[in-house]
Specification:
- With about 170 residues, the chain is mainly alpha-helical.
- It folds into two domains: about 90 residues; about 40 residues, no CATH class.
- The chain has seven helices and no strands.
- The longest helix has 22 residues.
- The two termini are about 55 Å apart.
Amino acid sequence: MTCHDHHVMIQQILPTCVRNILLPSVHQAIIRLNKCFQKICMKVVNPNDIPSLKMYVVETLSMLEMWFPLRFLNIMTHLLIHLVEDLDVCGPVGPRWCYPIERFMVILKHYVCNKTKPEGCMVMGYMYDEALGFCTEYFSIYKHTQKRMWDLKEELANVDGILQGRART
């Protein structure tokens, strides 16, 4: 799974899944963790709310410490505190996300046919994509002046003169 998949799982799916399975206090800790991530990932952040968000994150991590083993609380859970500090220094998280870059890298990886020269394959695939995109934009304003020979709705009288001769053997 990608980073974005984990992000969606923590924010949306996990709280719903554990609602009826775990104790209410454990479920509350997970819901608070979910809300921490939602507040960090908001598009607009009020700088006056950041100190209260720091305290909220610290309280949430202490609740997680009470219910989960110490192996669960590694450097990644501690990273949540630093994400709030980065929010104070750098602003909203959205412009600094790598999700669009990850999606584009997946597209480039699909262009690789020759594994000895992946960069060249990526460049050629990207060039073909851009050329086809340009051509489709150009041809969308093109008006057809004649019917094609293989058009099923075409009158048979027009086709008789074109389809003459015998088959080759």
